Amino acid sequence: MLSEKSRPVVEATIGIIGERIPNITPVFYKSMFEARPDLLDGMFSRANQKNGTQPQALAGSIAMFASHLLNHPDSYPDEVLSRVAHKHASLGLLPEEYPTVHEHLFGAIAADLGDAATPEVVAAWDEVYWLMADALIKIEKGLYSQQANDVMFAPFRLISKEPVAEGVVAFEFEPADDTPMTPSVAGQYISIQVVVMDGLRQPRQFTLVPSDPGHRRIVVREDPEGEVSPILHEDIAVGDVLEISNPYGDVTLDPDFHGPLVLVSAGIGITPVVAFLDQLAREDPEREVLVLHADRSEAAWPGRELVRDYVSRMPNAKLVSWLAAPGEGDFAGHMDVSQAEIPEGAEVFMCGPLAFMQSVRSQLVSGGVPGRSIHYEIFGPDLWMLHDEARTANA
User: Fold this and answer.
1) CB atoms < 10 A from the CB of 120, how many?
2) What is the pLDDT of residues 366-385, one digit of tens each?
3) pTM higher than 0.90, yes or no?
4) Regarding the domain delimited by 7-145, which CATH topology (the fold level of the hierarchy) does it fall under?
5) What is the arithmetic mean of pLDDT over 65-71?
6) For residues 317 and 239, is the Cβ–Cβ distance under 8 A?
7) Cβ of 145: how many Cβ atoms within 10 Å?
8) In degrees to the nearest 10, what's the CA dihedral of 379, 380, 383, 384?
């Protein structure tokens, strides 16, 4: 918890820090990458720097953490810390990088605040930073210790590459050396390092979908404007070897909850739903499961036949779809959950574009689903999680 000395300083300055930190973080990243350009080779996504989502995520996480310390002095925001730590672990972040971040972040804070960055203010926010960093380091060390190996990335060979929908390709990999594989849990993801046009490695996270034993399988939609997915789609060939992380991610099915489940997805967000359905069909086929999916068309829907097969094997499962293409799906247009009967007491898992999930969550909460029962996975920096009070309203 915050010390008695730092708490009133943070209370007095959290407004200005929260207001200024979106301006501080771009300066911080510029300074850090100038001093440590190696961090852009395999660690940080240039795309997330360019579009501003990574700086926004860092800014939001620090402000949110400080706010939590003030409002809940005897606890930490465990959900947020876990989400961040899993992402860090998938990138192989080590404890020795936290001082690097600290040095350049606080240099940017001092430059931005000027005379307002008094020794007392800097010391108080330094305490906030290290409380957060130490909590993350502890979680990340625990995640690393759970792996079947002591490496951050291992070589995997591509053994299969097949189209599964319009603009969507499935990739299956096998180990290219004898590094032990950590078993994955449905809903988890891996980071893959791809060498891009200028020779740097760029990491991206992809949800694992069911595969043969000893393999890793992912499904990737091509973003024509992206830096990595076009290379995977167009250049990576069977036989090529890529560096892949151990599996991480905390959006998984609760083994102690046996009530109804609602699995909501749009587009490529179907991938964790496929993983959940595979687990449920094998381990709990009698479970009441409602699958809701939105997409452009049947042809654009990844894994549609696989989803239908899983649902057909589960007597208490139902699939409802919303497709934009005329005459396709159960309903046309955008997802309207009032058109599906949400089971009472259900836990909800969502994955898809942020605007889609925000809309669906609002509909669910308006329909009586408690906010605390709605879980989600998001691809890329999680800006939604950082507005925690708004996201968990009506919990």
Assistant:
1) 14
2) 999 999 999 998 876 665 55
3) yes
4) Globin-like (1.10.490)
5) 93
6) no
7) 8
8) 10
